[in-house]
Design a protein that fits this description.
This protein is of the alpha+beta class and 94 residues long. It is 51% helix and 16% strand. The protein has 4 helices and 3 strands; from the N terminus they run E-H-H-E-E-H-H. The protein has helices spanning 5-12, 18-31, 60-69, 76-91, and strands at 3-4, 41-46, 52-58. A 3-stranded antiparallel β-sheet has the order 1-3-2. The model has no long low-confidence stretch (mean pLDDT 83).
């Protein structure tokens, strides 16, 4: 499942320029040695102007890691949910 990273940034931050925020977040994550952005591939998708343009996309696992990296109050409910799911998963005994 491909998800648009820029759209996620726009939804979870109050940034006036989600593209610039995403570009800066990618830089920061790469500098930290985070492999998540390396695995985000550009897919050609239909843009608002009707042209096919490359857009960074991620699968669900990569997206969850990106959400963890966004310092925003809007991202907190997702971070809490992910922590709850992880805790429940760890409590499961086979």
């Amino acid at each position: 499942m491909a998800l648009l990273n820029r759209c996620v940034v726009a939804a979870l931050t109050d940034s006036v320029n989600a593209t610039a925020y995403w570009r800066k977040l990618k830089q920061r994550l790469k500098a930290e040695g985070n492999e998540t952005v390396t695995n985000c591939h550009g897919l050609k998708m239909l843009a608002a102007d009707g042209k096919m343009r490359f857009t960074d996309a991620a699968d669900a696992q990569q997206l969850f890691r990106l959400i963890q990296s966004i310092p925003s109050l809007k991202a907190e409910p997702f971070k809490l949910w992910m922590a709850q799911m992880a805790a429940e998963r760890l409590d499961i005994t086979p």
